[in-house]
């Protein structure tokens, strides 16, 4: 190599410009450091799939799967990740809206514990959108008894229900979800009875957390004013020509102890809700309201076997021993539906 070419190579390498090669093992050391910095304490997880009376299930997954995949990819591609797309994009950029079910769980994020200034640190949700911006609403089409414009309004009102149930700051602080209830068909007596009973006297058979996200202000406070979301709506023609809308959304809530302090933990809630916008000529309903067909809920660090009517996150590492019956689950894995099972509490692989 001529001297002038060699000198130019050294100069551009020192300045970080041009196409100067990088040290091959730098990426591997970076990811290994991130994995070492990740919190090691597991957090409790529980799930409630239900259509009517609530039932519980366990999730049985392979613990440490995400870390194993990351290490494998780094071993074969030390300069960067290969074969990842969608939730697997590790560029650090905000994710595009979810338009269909992902085919893989999000990879491991840079390590570190959440703080009041960075409540989503170390979480895949750091790249998710805020509030309703993370809930994809599909393009409306005439369906069943509804025109295209009517379908568009029904989709918007369905998202309004999700916001009123899971994002309203007052509801998150434990107040009654009046705006959400106002969107529910008052003539659906089994649902109205369930909602009224669960909010008045919550218990195992009447748990408001299956529909509404609420924290006891005497136990926990929001860490900031942002809730991260990821999910989507879909629709089809349902029974008697109704518009049937399905919502599959994961919510991530960072919270701190109510009494003060700078500890931050996250509560992760995934909900699958199916509603029916019925033809009033065929079903007794009220204008602007839907009938609730089914609802399923997975929750992480909301309180194992909790019957208080509020999420009760564990602080001080107390959640580590909560999932003692052997199961583990990744609360950020959206690759499959919430499935029914035999109940109980499992351990989350990350928070």
Q: Please give the count of helices.
A: 7
Helix content: 10-25%
Strand content: 15-25%
What letter string, H or E per element, gives the SSE order? HHEEHEEHHHHEEEEEEE
Number of domains: 2
Radius of gyration over alpha carbons? 23 Å
Envelope shape: globular
Low-confidence stretches: 16-91, 319-323
Distance separating the two termini: 53 Å
**Roughly what is the average pLDDT, rounded to an integer?**
78
Detailed description of the structure:
This protein is an alpha+beta fold. It folds into two domains: 3-31, no CATH class; 38-70 and 98-348, no CATH class. It has seven helices and eleven strands. It has helices at residues 3-15, 26-37, 65-76, 148-166, 169-172, 178-181, 189-200; strands at residues 43-51, 53-54, 129-130, 135-136, 220-222, 228-237, 243-257, 265-277, 291-300, 328-329, 345-348. Strands 1, 2, 3, 4, 5, 6, 7, 8, 9, 10 and 11 form an eleven-stranded mixed beta sheet that branches. α2 (26-37) runs antiparallel to α3. The chain is globular, with a radius of gyration of 23 Å. The model is unreliable at 16-91 and 319-323 (pLDDT under 50).
